[in-house]
TrEMBL record:
InterPro entries referenced in this protein's UniProt entry, alphabetically: PsdUridine_synth_cat_dom_sf, PsdUridine_synth_N, Trub2
GO biological process, one term: RNA processing
Example GO molecular function: RNA binding
Coiled coil: none
SUPFAM superfamilies registered for this protein in UniProt: Pseudouridine synthase (SSF55120)
Protein name in UniProt: Uncharacterized protein
Pfam families the record matches: TruB_N
Length: 311
């Protein structure tokens, strides 16, 4: 069974570097590919000695396997996979992590150029401040938080969303008085199509149980450290302090938690199924955003992309 070219998503656990996740997937896939049935050994004609009728030895043409092509001689058939990573997650963060295989890596570039938003659930804890804005950092301050209410928190979130909405319009480089702007707004395509600072497109409070709280944040061009700093700044705006306890990506463009394979599902069959099931919505989003006229950017599914070792 060959690995089809395409994109798939896995769930990256917290405390693990994304490079280790990719390496683990490559190792598992190569192991399963090499464990499968191999190609039959090629045959060639050799003239081998055989006893003749009169007691003499004569050479007889015989088909024999080419032992130079035997796996014990050549080594594993598959030695490498061309696997690329999408928007990365740092060590402390968890959630949806998109990867590409073979020619599917070109789709990673197309999705990057689409500038799709990502969604996170971010946990916070009032009353503390650390040097790296996370709950595992060095404690630098303790503050009170009894005066903080959900209404005050949501007021700050509304201010953040309003300020970022203005930034979104500014970096989208679109005249909002034109028909083009109206049509893009209807399609939900108003977004910066180039470099920009991190932009929060939506933020709301999911849970509020002081000192703990949880936010849902939709954003563009962010880093996980930026989100931790945002929690810290929310604490300051509320005349207190706050640290980030969790950053969990729940959506990366068209990929959601439902698409993300858990560690127990990291095998060849599940990854192939994930690539097949996601190909159409990936293609649809690329065509919708970049205006592609055909599906030529989508690799054929029956093309194996694991690199076979050539002698």
């Amino acid at each position: 069974m060959a690995v089809p070219a395409g994109l798939f998503a896995v769930y990256k656990p917290a405390g693990v570097a994304w490079t280790r996740v990719r390496a683990a997937l490559e190792t598992r896939l190569l192991s399963e590919l090499n464990a499968g049935p191999g190609r039959p050994l090629p045959q060639r004609v050799r003239f081998l000695p055989a006893p003749g009728r009169d007691g003499t030895t004569e050479l007889v043409p015989t088909m024999v396997p080419v032992l130079a092509q035997h796996p014990l001689v050549r080594g594993p058939r598959f030695r490498r996979l061309k696997m690329g990573a999408g928007h990365r997650l740092d060590v402390k963060a968890s959630g949806v992590f998109v990867l590409g295989i073979g020619e599917g890596n070109k789709l990673l570039t197309d999705l990057y150029n689409c500038h799709l938003s990502r969604a996170y659930t971010v946990g916070g804890l009032f009353g503390k401040a650390t040097d790296d804005f996370s709950d595992t950092g060095k404690l630098v301050e303790k503050t009170t938080f009894d005066h903080i209410t959900r209404e005050k928190l949501e007021r700050i979130l509304a201010v953040i969303q309003g300020a970022n909405h203005k930034a979104l319009l500014m970096y989208s480089n679109i005249d909002m008085k034109t028909q083009e702007a109206y049509e893009l707004a209807v399609k939900g395509l108003i977004r910066p199509m180039g470099k920009s600072p991190p932009i929060i497109t939506a933020v709301r409070c999911l849970q509020f149980a002081p000192p703990e709280f949880q936010l849902e944040i939709h954003c563009l061009h962010e880093t996980q450290q930026y989100l931790r700093k945002m929690v810290h700044e929310i604490g300051l705006e509320l005349k207190s302090s706050a640290v980030c306890t969790q950053v969990r990506r729940t959506r990366d463009g068209v990929f959601t938690l439902d698409d993300a394979l858990l560690r127990s599902q990291w095998n060849l069959q599940n990854i192939c199924n994930a690539i097949w099931s996601c190909q159409f919505k990936v293609q649809a989003e690329i065509e919708r955003t970049l205006g592609h006229e055909d599906g030529s950017d989508l690799p054929q599914l029956d093309v194996g992309t694991a690199g076979a070792a050539d002698s």
